[in-house]
Structures are given as structure tokens and as C-alpha cells.
Write a structure and sequence with these properties.
It is a single chain. The protein has 166 residues and is an alpha+beta fold. Helices cover 48% and strands 35% of the residues. A 4-stranded antiparallel beta sheet has the order 2-3-1-4. It is globular and about 45 Å long.
Length: 166
């Protein structure tokens, strides 16, 4: 009898794990939000996921950034154009049938300028701290490596030009 219960519990756990998917939500909040209010809005956004049983894997708190291109949005019957936004992301697990409910709330969420919700994998989650440290390290060596590369490139171009002229 106890082995039957253990098998049933194992089967239920396996079924639940199959229905749980990993998602990543990248988003831009409107830049008109007060800086002190960004944390509150981020908390609201995360609550859409939590109240449906989602569990967070990793996240990056929204930071004000320049946008690569202008984005427009109608706010209170007026079309507004934005060149900056608060960008952040969260990676989480959630049952697949709950995603539509989360998306409905995201679409109606006033501070949202734009978002992208994708299905992904739990692995390969990179911390933004690690990226910043790597970027700083790369920038410290870029000048030296760039000079060496430029010298080597010039020598190669000159050699190729000489060969072509002959």
C-alpha cells in the first residue's frame, strides 16, 4: 500500500513538472514613473506571476535606459513618444495554462510601455553582476587588444595591396 502511495506521489510530481514551463519576461516601464515608484510597480508586476503559482528563478531590477529607437504609446487618449524607459526582466516557472492570464494583466498594466514574454530554459541564466564585471574587464583590455589588432590588420592590408599591384 505504501509503495502505491509513493508511486502515485511520484507520478503527480512528474505530471506537475511537465506542466511547469520556464518563461522570461522582458519589459519596459514608462519613463514618466517616479524613480521611487519603480520598485512598487515592479512588485505589482511580479505579483501577477506569484498569485498564479509562479516561482522566480532570476530577475534584473528595472533601470532607466536610452531606447534604441523611439516607441510611441497612447496614454489617456494622447499619443506619447518615448526615447527612454525602465528596462527589467524576470525569469520564472509557471504552469503553461496560466500564461494567458498573466498576459491579460500585463496588457492592462498602465506603467507598461512594452513587454516580451517567451518560453525558455532554466539553464544559462546569467547574472547581470557577472556581465558587468566581464564588460569592465573587457573594456580595460580593449584598448591594448585594439591597437595590436589594428597594427596586424594594416600589415595584412599592405601585403595584400603589394601582391595585387605586382
Amino acid at each position: 500500500m505504501s509503495t502505491e502511495l509513493n508511486q502515485d506521489a511520484t507520478t503527480m510530481d512528474a505530471e506537475q513538472n511537465e506542466s511547469l514551463k520556464v518563461y522570461e519576461l522582458g519589459f519596459h516601464f514608462l519613463p514618466t514613473i517616479a524613480e521611487d515608484d519603480v520598485a512598487v510597480q515592479f512588485s505589482h508586476l511580479k505579483s501577477f506571476i506569484e498569485k498564479r503559482g509562479g516561482e522566480f528563478i532570476s530577475e534584473d531590477f528595472p533601470k532607466l535606459r536610452d531606447l534604441a529607437y523611439e516607441i510611441s504609446k497612447t496614454v489617456k487618449s494622447q499619443k506619447k513618444r518615448y526615447t527612454k524607459a525602465y528596462f527589467g526582466w524576470v525569469k520564472f516557472t509557471l504552469e503553461a495554462d496560466k500564461v494567458e492570464e498573466v498576459e491579460k494583466e500585463l496588457k492592462a498594466f498602465d506603467p507598461m510601455l512594452r513587454y516580451l514574454l517567451i518560453k525558455t530554459v532554466a539553464e544559462n541564466t546569467l547574472s547581470s553582476v557577472g556581465k558587468e564585471e566581464k564588460r569592465d574587464k573587457d573594456q580595460a583590455t580593449d584598448g591594448v587588444a585594439g591597437e595590436v589588432l589594428a597594427e596586424g590588420a594594416e600589415a595584412h592590408v599592405e601585403k595584400t595591396t603589394e601582391e595585387v599591384v605586382q
